[in-house]
User: Fold this.
Amino acid sequence: MKVLAIGAITKPPTDEQRQRIMPKEVPDTLRLYLDGKIDQFWFRKDKVGVVFLMNAESVDEAKAATDQLPLTKGGFMTFEHIPVGPLAPLGFLIQGK
Assistant:
C-alpha cells in the first residue's frame, strides 16, 4: 500500500537543538529510503516540512516509521498519514462502463 506522510514542523527547534538532531534525522530518513519504506520524498513549499510517499502494509506501519524520526520523537514535527491508491474511476473509461 502507498501512504502519503505529510510532515510539518509544529515547534521549531532552536539552533542548538537543530545541530544536535539533524545529524540523526538525515541518516534515519535515508535509511527508510534505502530500506524501501520511503519511495519518494519532497520538501514542502507551503510551510516547513516534508512529504514522503511511503510503502507500507498499513497506515499504522507508516506512522510507526515516521514516529521514530528524531524530529518527530522530539515533538518538533507531526505527520498526517493518508492511504492512497490508483484512481479507480478511470476503470470505467477503459472498460466501457
